[in-house]
Amino acid sequence: MKSSWSVRKLGDACEIRHGANQKSVENPNGRYPIYGSGGPIGFANEHRCPAHTVLIGRKGTLNKPILVQTPCWNIDTAYGLIPKEILHPSYLFYFCLNTDFTTLDSSSGRPSTKASSIAKISIPVPPLPEQRRIVGILDAAFEKIDAVQRNAERNLANAKELFQRVLDEEMTPKDGWGEVLLAEICNFFGRGRSKHRPRNDKSLYGGNYPFIQTGDIRQANHIITSYTQTYNQKGLEQSKLWPQGTLCITIAANIAETAILGFDACFPDSVIGCVVDDKRASVDFLEFLLQHFKHSLKAAGKGSAQDNINLGTFEKHRFPIPYEKIEQDRIVGKLNYFLESCIRLEVEYNAISKHCAELKQQILTQAFNGEL
Rounded to whole angstroms, how far apart are CA atoms 13 and 119? Predict the structure, then answer.
């Protein structure tokens, strides 16, 4: 840190203003945005914090500081940091970006922080002209980094849009297509586990048997190739080991997500599985077909409490398929070509996102060490 800089406590360099319930001031036509720890949630007739306030989380999302350029209302999940005359608002914002507020988490449940802990954080305070110079460098650097990330995100979105368009075109029935009941060509396994649902029993986890959760299915690209949890022998006895090649379908919460199992694994009771036992169809074609019908299946599974689809919805539903197996193979090959492009761009996007986050962190560290 440079000799011309001082060090202050955050509680001395800014006012920490608590949030409040917004019900009495909430108005969709209000002038002032309402913010929680995760971002804007509405509008209000009044404001609690002036323009150029930095909002940080009190509960919930702790590491997502927001610089609000207009007066705003912060609810009780967010603190408003109002900089005093010694701090440039953007300098304070970047300092908060460089601070890991999760280290102040004082709760055993939902993440939360205390104003007294935030007030004790030390902040390096250069002269205001120096703060403005640092902010200018950070603004320019972050804009360039964000542009790189936006470009990668746009490329991925375009590839996914193209895949979806090709999927919809190829799955539209044409001459030479007919309809089949899934129950005619598939053997359904039913739910993954027994009815007493031992999913919260920690003694079942941590073994050699992959346990596929609904999130693993949702995130898979056609084929499930990875997993985040495992079962031990006790868990296996409470479950079923489904074979590689099983078509997996979620039937509760995030319903109608599908993917093909790339290895033997156990499943929760919110998933059904099936294997194709008829020469009229391939499992790859059916998985793409269900992707195409995902939205209509989701609509059929709307519930009063939690969305869900029962096994009969799939067994009794008639789906269009080409009569000729060679046509199914052609469609699968074409869709795989476009899907591989999506997968490649997603890997690229994730790598770029990680690199961008690391680069931002390096620049922030240099800034508050006085190295810019």
Answer: 9
Residue limits of CATH 3.90.220.20 in the chain? 6-126, 177-323
- Per the CB < 8 A criterion, the answer to whether 35 and 73 are in contact is yes
User: What does 131-192 look like in DSSP terms, one character per residue?
Assistant: HHHHHHHHHHHHHHHHHHHHHHHHHHHHHHHHHHHHHHHHTS--TTEEEEEHHHHEEEEEES
Distance (Å, whole) CA 202 – CA 230 = 11
CA-to-CA separations, 109 to 60, 100, 106, 113, in angstroms, rounded: 10, 18, 9, 12
Where helices occur in 275-324 by DSSP H, the ranges are: 283-292, 294-300, 311-315
Distance CA 126, CA 121 (A): 16
Q: How far apart are CA 264 and CA 239, in angstroms?
A: 12
SS3 content of the chain, % helix, strand, coil (to 5): 40, 25, 35
At the topology level of CATH, where does 6-126 sit?
Answer: Adenine-n6-DNA-methyltransferase TaqI; Chain A, domain 2 (3.90.220)
Is the Cβ–Cβ distance between 75 and 35 less than 8 Å? yes
Give the pLDDT confidence of 87-131 residue by residue, as tens digits: 999 999 999 999 999 998 877 678 889 999 999 999 999 999 999
Predicted TM-score (pTM) above 0.70: yes
Report the distance separating Cα 170 and Cα 165, nearest Å: 9
Contact between 15 and 84 under an 8 Å Cβ cutoff? The reply is yes
CA distance 116 to 118: 6
Q: Side chain identity at 243, as an amino acid letter?
A: P
Does residue 73 sit in helix, strand or coil? Answer: strand
CATH superfamily for domain 177-323: DNA methylase specificity domains (3.90.220.20)
- Crossing angle for the helix pair 128-170 and 89-97, nearest 10 degrees? 60
